[in-house]
Input
Amino acid sequence: MSRKVYAVILASGKGERMNCGFPKQFIEIAGKTIVGRSIEAFEKNSGIDEIIVVSEPACIEKITEIVKNSGFKKVTKIVPGGAVRAESSSIGVGEIAEDDAKVLIHDAARPFVSQRIIDDCISALDSSDAVHTAIKATDTIIEADCGKMAATTDRSRMMQVQTPQGFRASVIKKAHANAKKEGFAGATDDCGIVFKYGLADIRIVEGERTNIKITYPEDIALAGIIAEKG
Ligand code: CTP
Ligand code: MG
Output
């Protein structure tokens, strides 16, 4: 029997950098909320069996309404998230019972994830226990320390990470259990946690430049253009 595939959509952030008076995942881009678009991408992918949404605790009703009004059938759980992203992620993954399931963890703030990226992440998990989505860095990256340049990097080896990030459920659960002991300190993404504890070889799936994370007010105009281009 093939392994069950879950998507965990992380929508428990407050959107402080967006500073729009409510969590940014509820901003509408061309008539649809950011979180609604992100859920829809996984809803319509035939490889996804179930979707778990991790919601900002005060917004569970709002998400429930979006799920209902959009007719999403794969969303089985909407659970309140934690104080930091890694905690929200660990709460979402904690809802998965099967240790050998495949799980794709995705930022609700990346509504333009393509079907090709989702397909590639699911397939990569046939032969790997962890998969990262990333694109080649276009800017040169330097290391900085206290306002001073501390080191150069080789741009040809640098990549910018995106989501989804995919895992065998047992691997990401173990990673989160370790991170929890350290208060989830310093963890910005799930592959970073798996890497830190050396729990799997992490395959890289090619991301896309349109798979943006909507973070600042300036990102909204670009999001509108991407949405219109379909
Ligand atoms: N996220 C989450 N739980 C948290 C923090 C973040 O589920 N405690 C989610 C966000 O909702 C988002 C994704 O993780 O979909 C990436 O986080 P980010 O872009 O940083 O969103 P926010 O934390 O909401 O924004 P900011 O950092 O500007 O407050
Ligand atoms: Mg954040």
